Amino acid sequence: MSEHNMPTITAVRQDAIEVSDFVYAATGARVRRLTMPDGEHWFPATDVCAELGHTNPRKAVADHVHEGGISRLETVTSRYGLSIPAGRGWRRDLNMVNLQGLIMLVNGCTKPECQPFKQWVAEVIETVQREGSYSLPVSEIATATSNGATAYAMPDQVIDLITRLEERNLRLDEEFAAGQKVSAQAQERLMQTHVNLVQTQVGLAQSMARIADALEALVRAQGMPLSESGRESETPPTRPPDMNAILAQWRRRIPEGSDVWPVALYLLPEMLQNGDYKMSIDYLAVKVGMTAQEASSCLRVLRQAGCISQLGFTQNGNPVHALILE
């Protein structure tokens, strides 16, 4: 077989350092990656720039990455006859950078977190200039483990940097969890406040109902009320809506613990007292501790559940809502 007819064999490159750890040490984050059949790695330029604090990815790439370090996703995949990866964010025109381009973006970054990695890169270059080559210590050279998996080399500088990053992320996770706990406790206290308010309103409504019953009994004891024509009134006196009954209906329609309940528990006594609710969405949001968008969404859920209905708008443009009584 002649040299021209011999099949082309692409050798798969073995990374000296596991690429995910390498990129993590360089950028401080786990960045999306495409690895080609020959072992070349490519990363979305927008992902890398976002983690490094470059506010203008296009300018950052133009300023720091040479032509060989960047390519379009479609160009990269077509070299190997591959299709565009499925999923959101993978577009044909997406700019990708290889490892050289990624390192160039890191070198152009001013974040203090990138300084240890940049110092290691400078050390590698200085060693090559002085000694003609750079190699990892023997104890760090990649070897095959007993189970057949590959153990990658890891310079001490990269190990230390990754360790600090992981400790920082663990601390951030703990702070986030603590913040979530405080937020949940605050939400629980707010809910309990609304429950107490509703219970107070329910007690007031029940007291008013008992007074009305007592007055009705007193009037009947002295004789039935007459209409203007002198005949016995056929229309019984109107009794106020039962708040407990309304709450029971709402509980069958709205799951317990739903985000809608703070709005529901605030609106119910307001509507029972005033007949409707005409305040603005912003005012409602302040009262229940939500954003205007969240409060508007809660009103929509209450309408869809058949708890309230929108009657129209005030002259100021505020929506007018009223209870749906069954």
Automatic annotation (TrEMBL):
Q: Which domain of life is it from?
A: Bacteria
Q: Which SMART domains match?
A: Bro-N (SM01040)
Q: Show where the Bro-N domain sits.
A: 16-132
The question of whether rRNA-binding is a record keyword is answered with no
Q: Does DNA-binding show up as a keyword for this record?
A: yes
Coiled-coil region list:
none
One Pfam family from the UniProt entry? Bro-N
GO molecular function annotations of the record: DNA binding
Question: Which keywords annotate this record?
Answer: DNA-binding
Q: Which PROSITE patterns match?
A: BRO_N
Protein's name according to its UniProt entry: DNA-binding protein
